[in-house]
Amino acid sequence: MRVRIRELGPVAAAVAIATLSCARIEPPPGGPPDPTPPHLIATRPDSFARIPGFKGDVEFRFDEVLSEGGSPNVGTGTGDLEKLIILSPTTRVPNVTWRRSRITVRPSEGWRPNRVYRVELLPGATDLRRNRSTTGTALTFTTGAPLPATTIDGTVVDWTTSRPVAGALVEAVLLPDSLPYRGLADSSGHFKLGPLPDGQYLVRGVLDENRNVRFDSREAFDTVRLAPGKTAAAELWAFVHDTTPMRIREVTVIDSTSASIQLSQSLAPGLRIAPNQVTVRILPDSTPIRVTSVLPKPLDDSLNRRAASARDTTARDTTRRDTTGADTTRPGRRRGIVEVGPGRPRARTELEPLTSRPPLTDRLILRVPQPWKPEGKYEVEIRGLRSVSGVTSDVRGGMTVKPVVAADTTAARGADSLKRRPPKNAADSLTRRPPKKRT
Question: What architecture does CATH give domain 38-147?
């Protein structure tokens, strides 16, 4: 239906223009369903092209019309199409434009001469039927600089879990110009970033928590410097770098002779704390008590497992010497059977932890030779603690032992049998008269 805007009033005309301008392209009604995602058929310019004085747009052309997405591109990197583009080397959000079956890209500051540019299109391009592409591509060209030939590879690891991080942000900063080239690790945490210009690089692996493809100051990261000609970044163990002094957040009782100390930061790996570095005082008279050990939780757990394993071995030897020949230590459990509950076991989706570095921890286990006093208050002081960021500090915290509440055994024993009442519908068998016989 054709509408003549000039035949309408001024208000109706304004509404009609706004309606037409906000119209969105939708798939045609009817026809068979199309489950095929959009397919990239061409890029402009060609990859590895050398174009001095380049002034145009980088273009990704697909075989069908794309969806603009629900979030518009406004130059902040939050638009649906802006999230699909990584442009290097630049620190600013590029200009990304939707042109039906094409996505065009250019730097917001314009193309600089004699530079190597890398434009990466991430998976996620969507057609009008919401079919999403699962593959991406990257093209590299220069605006007059020599063609690049360096590819940097490595793995990004989250040090708090010791596991590789899928989709981690990788930045290779070319020195001394500080030109950042960016990319993402694959599903196994491994990355290959390139080709890049030859030179010295500062490579940074970042846990990009807000997914803005930018390095923020509070995000966990790790860096390595590569000399010219070096391309192997190996493993980047990312952690939160904090230069503030460490402090004790909480001290809680574990059992009668041990307590857990929760710290505000992770400890330096391999840190050992001597008992003479720790002082435990009973308040309010500040009477010191002897300390058996203060160990990082993974090390304390390992020592306890060894001790428990030794005790278990002794118990098994005793069980084998039993004349009955039956293993009574674990009744009802068959060897080799993994108990996963009802249904099928869930598939393992997380990556296996790496062991080339010791795990990080922010917990210490304190052990003393004498039991804690019920309702007693204690002060714990540790000197010379070093965080993973290399900051050494003295910490102090307090702990209160909760009183032991005796269990009420009255309910378990039940009421006195002499005072127990019979059920409502039960008759007393002693006073119950037998029924009369009919004659």
Answer: Sandwich (2.60)
